[in-house]
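Human: You know discrete backbone vocabularies at least as well as I do. Show me how you would write down a chain together with its backbone fold. No explanation is needed for now; the record alone will do.

Assistant:
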Amino acid sequence: MVLRHVSRRAPLDGVGVASIKCPAVGSRVHWIVVRDGHVTNRRLAGGAGMGLDYALGAGPEAAAAHWEDRGELTGWWTDDVCDGGALIDADRQVLLFFTTRALPAYRTAMLDGYRRVWAGWQVAWADAGLVELARYVGADPAAVRTPVAAKLLSPEPDAPTAPDVQEALGVLAGRVETFVPADIGLRAMKEKLQAGLGARVALAAMESARDEAAPAAAAAAKLIRER
């Protein structure tokens, strides 16, 4: 689905023309947030793409902040190595995403579940993958395009009520409920350790942040499960 672009006059962090190829094993994604006319493009690796589904499943505010302490703010992956991406436009309330890793039924579950968790937003699959995200923020698509892009499948054509999609919705909800609070807790622990406050303080911060995040994650998971 092709959506309107961000103005080329918008301030951009990490939306340059350089493209980067990485032979290392890992899940590489772009996490792009547009807020108050400013674009922040995070180029992530180290398995970040494995959490794209549950990070988006947490809803707009949690998703926008999910990787704010990670990633590079320069360059783009090329579309032959990029495993996924998400664009969160808080100004226009648009969520545009894709992944090359998930099976088609799981892609359908993501679209279906997100439309409830992101109520009031336009939620769409990026049919052209990374090229579509780059184009949206006014970057040159040629910076990410390669002759042989990673295989990008569309969501399952079946209705969200199909049995395999219903099963996938349950898996997605479980991942949101489990991993979103866990990630938030780990970030809190990391902050305390980096501040030199010691393991005991860091562990307490982790448990507190995790427990505080759990109700919102459970509520999002419930929306995903219940049609």
